[in-house]
């Protein structure tokens, strides 16, 4: 899709008395006009403060004013900030994203300005040193003053306290000399600088397939121009080495590099590898960074001091002026999709940024998204394939355990065959991993006496028991309550039963089965923050753990050489929901988890517990025939006109009042424009019909590929009167439905 609205092109600068359009980081329809005060010259991209109502606000000069408001009614720009202007590439990108996602441009701008305090000049400290020529014009000297002079004669700058202490005088003496002009003030910042990546670090020779791939990307980087590559290779095939090499070539060519990762907090191993390759830590960017660090990185990127950034999806909006390469690792991950505010997919928007900025983009994955493969098939992306694991490591053997034929004992979740393999692994002093993508102890608590199910009071979801924390939690809104003793509905004591397993329950079973084994439970409830995560990884690496039980936090990116067995507790879990991508996602996740086994010399095995061994996903995992699976998926979607062969958008309406919501939804349904190429489905209750106390209804807009879905939705929404209490969220290319 291409944006309808052309970016405002403002070539020259605007001088005093002229008007400029200033975009503010707010949900407004566009830039607001302001007058340039005398003595100021403003160019597009300049950060300025402007009055808005009673306060001053920072915005960006976006273009010439629209001229709609008479000059005398206009307010004046207050000031220009001392930061590098927003690069043209980022301004174009902001507009593009706004048009594509149907968001107010100011809301996208907000993503690009989200570095608290970044726009204020860095805080400076003051130090003193001997002023030039001061010796010739000394004022009246005292012994104390002479001692200060003696210290300062070495020419170094010192803070006032330091200088006074070294000279053995009071701070007042230093001040007196400064006032007299003998000492001069110098300003300095205590902020950490950025390491320069070392491109000469010795590194392993690449395999033939690796160097071909690196050369293809590297050549494009050096020649310039947009191209998207899919770097496609099984886990452990050396994709990271390839894109590090491409990044090194971009850095050598004087360009900045951005590496996007799905879950930045989970990447201590990645940062170590980065450091081994480039001799320094990269600049990091993600939402867990303290404000000060975000400010430092934002500035560093804007001023070109930070040459390479590793970040989560929002790093895409950093003010790079010389960006020459974006890598999106694990491009299929849904963590790249932002589902709040501006709904965007960082993978897709990275490709857009590359196309606007005329530089290459690399998408890396062992299990590419169907959308990405479709782009390869259509010749839009260049396919670089690494078909083998590096070195002696082999792909693991994958087996299904048919739970109908080999059921666990009553009240247990692990089949005898899986338990036996774990016992063998323990005997050989190897590690095993049990994977279950479900936090907590049990996903549902039910009263045996009256059938009542414990539900979240604010959401349409069950409460999940967390036995270790002795509480029930809603995984959608964060609501928690202590686990009740009696049923809240009928009051029966000891009647509440836990239904189904979560990882905590599996951990309990494993401890009973193998009391001597050292067990580690890894889920986001246990691993709060990067430090806990690093510690868990260290324990596994140093073989302080025999059996790892984990949710998807263990699925990705790790190399554990002693890990030879992966057991998937419930392979059918993700297939239950009716989501369009349920099969694709289950395949990706289970393939990733399987990839944890046998990363080094020791061969690995994967045992998948399933009630549906004949399901297409299971067959693909067993045969390892990913492409046949993707082709079948593609054929199904093409037949139904679903993405990537058709286009989809979700419109979610939410309100605390159900009657109001339903009335609005009915009105909207009536007002939907007729189109041959576009169907509107709904309104229907959204997948979470109640979330955080708000009722939710949804329309799905399903369009043919060539239809302009944004234009259609904009035209539709323009006719609808939306009450203040109702929120409308438009999600182009939605993931959850
Ligand atoms: P992927 O990103 O495809 O999962 P990695 O780049 O992590 O694969 O490589 C897997 C392992 O093989 C890593 O330990 C890496 O250091 C090693 N490796 C990859 N390529 C080479 C190479 N050319 N020489 C030596 N070791 C390599
Ligand atoms: Zn809830």
TrEMBL record:
Task: Quote the EC number.
Answer: 5.6.2.4
Q: List GO terms (cellular component aspect).
A: primosome complex
Q: Name one GO biological process term.
A: DNA replication initiation
The residues covered by the Helicase ATP-binding domain are 220-386
Give the residues the record marks as binding Zn(2+) 2. 456, 459, 474, 477
Its cofactor is: Zn(2+)
Give any GO molecular function from the UniProt entry.
ATP hydrolysis activity
> Can you quote the record's cofactor note?
Binds 2 zinc ions per subunit.
Q: How does this polypeptide assemble, per the annotation? A: Component of the replication restart primosome.
What is this protein's name?
Replication restart protein PriA
Q: Origin organism of this chain?
A: Tepidicaulis marinus
Q: What is the lineage of its organism?
A: Bacteria, Pseudomonadati, Pseudomonadota, Alphaproteobacteria, Hyphomicrobiales
Q: Which gene encodes it?
A: priA
